[in-house]
Amino acid sequence: MISRRDASGFVDDIWAEVGLKRRVAFTVPSFLLAPIILAQTDYIAVLPRRLVLIFAVRVHCW
Q1: Local mean pLDDT, 10-residue blocks, the chain (62 residues)
Q2: DSSP assignment, residue 54?
Q3: Between the CA atoms of 8, 11, 15 and 16, what dihedral angle is there, to the nearest 10 degrees?
Q4: Which of 3, 51, 55, 9 is nearest to 28 (CA)?
Q5: Residue 30 DSSP class
Q6: Closest CA to 46 of 6, 10, 21, 18
Q7: pTM
């Protein structure tokens, strides 16, 4: 899951260093939608820590 059209970023660079490649399932217009989607799927996402802490209490998925 990504929040922009450019599907590559620092996560891809880090994973490439260890021989991994990310598969983007879909894009969202804002990271604010990510916790809601993640709570209903088995997808993973790299999110700002502060956002995760705020939503962890509300969504009860972490």
Answers
A1: 65 90 83 83 86 76 51
A2: H
A3: 40
A4: 3
A5: -
A6: 10
A7: 0.59
Runs of H (alpha helix) within the chain: 10-17, 34-38, 49-59
Q: Say what the pLDDT of residue 16 is.
A: 92
Give the per-residue pLDDT at 61: 53
Query: What's the pLDDT score for residue 50?
Result: 87
Distance CA 58, CA 43 (A): 19
CB 34: neighbour CB atoms within 10 A?
21
d(CA 50, CA 35): 12
Q: Which residues contact 62 (CB under 8 A, 6 or more apart)?
A: 52, 55, 56
d(CA 8, CA 32): 19
The two three-digit tokens of residue 12, written as one number: 């891809």
